[in-house]
Amino acid sequence: MADEVVLLDFWPSMFGMRVRIALAEKGIEYEYKEEDLRNKSPLLLEMNPIHKKIPVLIHNGKPVCESLIIVQYIDEVWNDRSPLLPTDPYQRAHARFWADYVDKKVYEVSRKIWTTKGEEKEAGKKEFFEIFKTLEGELGDKPYFGGETFGFVDLSLIPFYSWFHAIETFGEFNMEAECPKIVAWAKRCLQIETVAKTLPDQKKVYEFVGQMRKRFGLE
Amino acid sequence: MAELKLFRTWSTPFALRVVWALNLKGIQYDTIFEDLSNKSSLLLQYNPIYKKVPVLVHNGKPLVESLLILEYIDETWKQTPLLPEDPSERATARFWAKFGDDKVLLSVWNVFIKQGKDQEEAIVTAQENLGFVERQLTGKKFFNGETIGFVDLAFGWLANLLSVWEEICGVTLIDHEKFPMLSEWIQNFAGAPIIKESWPPRDKLITKYQALREVYTSKEAPK
User: Fold this and answer.
1) Which residues are paired to A8 by β-bridges?
2) Which residues form the GST C-terminal domain (chain A) (predicted)?
3) What is the model's pTM?
4) HSE of A102 in the Cβ direction (CA atoms, 13 Å)?
């Protein structure tokens, strides 16, 4: 039976990018549907009535929501190729912990930087550097968070790379100067075809964020 | 032989999830009770990022974050599975456990710590969230079906802590008319043998949370 896979997404969403990378890694064919988040489709509202958010993966008519849950789902269904999570339970728990840390921390603090100014922004920057310092500590000397190969934690974090230019410009700092190991790691990930093909251009994201800031009255 | 230690406090609902999971699977472990106002150096060593309980240490290796600990337990000890086998059902279970922690718990906690108009608004949000949860029980005894599973353990706090908070605030969030299925689930879950033998003493919980509510409500005048 042919699999029908549909992804409801929004091109600059880091969460959507995670799913796109996972699908690409597994070589899964799917239909991509771009959502206008200011005018959500009836399909999105039907498939994710609780949160009304993207990404949503619809597999043979059944929706899966929340990006890290979707990625795990993809790994479990298409389990015959390109594993995204380790097989050992402790290593899996370790990977889930750090992906969850990225989820809990990185989006909110990044958002703080590009949506606020003055003291709030400075506080956001301080927090941002602390969080990325912690991530650099976890990365250590490994080429990837997953060790020798690109894995679940790498996948959960790399989409934020497409937002670095926007965050550092509006945050008035230099990402490479502040978090050199993370930038080096990101460039290593960009050597991977699925990642390079999925991540949108940093300049495009920067322009998008600029438009959002205008709407929030920040420019 | 496997060495298993659980760091917890007497009251935290998050550690209870781990206690239940281990007990349901018949796994032996040692318990270390922490005083969160004076955390042990071991706890800080095992959970340097969040410095919280519960922490499960298996053969010297720490596991943190209660829902992640549950997944680890389920993958390591296969008897009495907590998560379903089907990937779509697993994804659904993970979704509801996350919704519980991210939204339901927070919205119910807001009811507990607020008063006046703020509390009234918090009640609306909390009951909206509880409504979504209620519908998940349609045609089922437990969220997992006939037996207790991952989502039941994740929502376990609804079966004891909630009534403690309701009693202290004088607010009924889960009334039998509005939430018949949740009300029945609470009875079934709270009364299940493995579950009920682990409940912390109710009078101690009342004292603890009474004091906590006073701290929160004294910060602002009632509206």
Assistant:
1) A33, A56
2) 88-216
3) 0.96
4) 25
